[in-house]
Write a structure and sequence with these properties.
It contains ten helices and 14 strands. It is of the alpha/beta class. Helices cover 41% and strands 20% of the residues. α2 packs parallel to α10 (271-286), α3 packs parallel to α4 (103-111) and α5 packs parallel to α6. The chain is elongated. The protein has helices at 6-18, 45-60, 74-86, 103-111, 137-151, 168-181, 199-212, 224-236, 252-259, 271-286; strands spanning 34-39, 64-69, 91-94, 116-119, 131-135, 156-162, 187-194, 218-221, 244-246, 265-268, 295-298, 301-304, 311-312, 315-316. The strands form four sheets. A six-stranded parallel β-sheet has the order 2-1-3-4-5-11, sandwiched between helices. It has a four-stranded parallel β-sheet with strand order 7-6-8-9, sandwiched between helices.
Length: 318
């Protein structure tokens, strides 16, 4: 699967906008098309950025946009899909709650003739969503794994804190990381536990792990919220100087922590880029385009203490 460089994705924005003639008000002279933005959870700043950027871009293009919060609950997500279909929405920009559990919802929308563009998270089907715009989490964590090995000098005990077990991103990140670190037998994983991408849960998980494994040297976390939670636990235990923390997302508080030489590194995703691409794809769909790539991978860039000044929260400093 070829990873799309950022400049090329920006070019795709333009292509999507120029495809056909804009006809966002063809249902009625007075009523614009409606786009639903259904997000797995708004209890996470990363997803708030994803949701608000998608809605703002849709509005810039002349559409009405409404954000729906599934609260990491597939039943509530189903309710939102049913409401969106019944209310006559024309497209859905979607961040799935569960890779398998969300498939039925996407197919329900497809049956109703509503295109669904997945953002960041995918569903495990190639015949449901119109297109899926996804971070290349695996490759991003290969880079983090290499840096992790370097910083730990190829030895010592470490911990991995996983995200939601039903999210493919959790396992893509873990597999990318382990594709590197597992080649070093003197690096020993002392514990691997899920904290559901939640900062407070990660703090609790880290506190428990430290009671059993006080001698760890590193922690790899599947997102930045969990990295910050783990770091809080390390501070409370007086081990923040001895244990190196690595995250993934590109959240503002972790970028600041890297600048302050507290956290070692993160994988910079580009939620604004994915959200804008999804909205632009909806525009192109309305204008008649149908031949979308099923999966559109977006590159992830590693941010560490050497290059952190080139980045801001959720993007590069351009």
């Amino acid at each position: 699967m070829q990873v799309i460089p950022l400049r090329l994705v920006y070019l795709l924005f333009t292509v999507a906008l120029l495809f056909g003639c804009s006809d966002q008000k063809d249902k009625s002279q007075d009523q614009p098309r409606k786009i639903a933005v259904i997000i797995s959870t708004l209890n996470n700043p990363w997803f708030v950025v994803l949701a608000e950027t998608a809605a703002d871009r849709a509005k810039e293009l002349g559409y009405a946009a409404t954000i729906f919060d599934a609260q990491n609950n597939t039943a509530l997500e189903t309710d939102h899909f049913e409401n969106v279909i019944a209310s006559g929405f024309d497209a859905i920009l979607f961040n799935p709650t569960d890779a398998d559990g969300s498939i039925a919802n996407v197919r329900m929308a497809k049956k109703a003739g509503i295109p669904v563009f997945c953002m960041d998270r995918e569903v495990n089907a190639t015949d449901a969503a119109t297109s899926q715009i996804l971070s290349d989490s695996y490759a991003g964590c290969v880079a983090i794994g290499k840096y992790f090995v370097e910083k730990l000098n190829k030895q010592g005990k470490y911990v991995e804190i996983l995200g939601l077990v039903g999210d493919n991103n959790t396992w893509s990140r873990s597999k990318g990381f382990h594709s590197v670190v597992d080649h070093y037998p003197e690096l020993k994983m002392a514990a691997q536990q899920s904290a559901d991408f939640d900062r407070n849960k990660a703090m609790e998980v880290m506190e428990s792990i430290l009671q059993v494994h006080p001698d760890i040297k590193g922690v790899f976390c599947g997102n930045d919220g969990m990295a910050m939670g783990a770091y809080q636990a390390l501070i409370a235990a007086g081990k923040d100087k001895q244990v190196m923390v690595f995250g993934f997302d590109g959240a503002g508080d972790v970028i600041n922590s890297i600048q302050q030489k507290k956290i070692l590194a993160t994988g910079m995703q580009f939620p604004k880029l994915m959200a804008k691409t999804a909205a632009n794809y909806a525009q192109a769909y309305f204008n008649g385009k149908r031949d979308f790539a099923q999966k559109v991978p977006v590159t992830v860039e590693m941010v560490n203490q050497e290059n952190v000044d080139e980045y801001v929260a959720y993007g590069s400093d351009e």
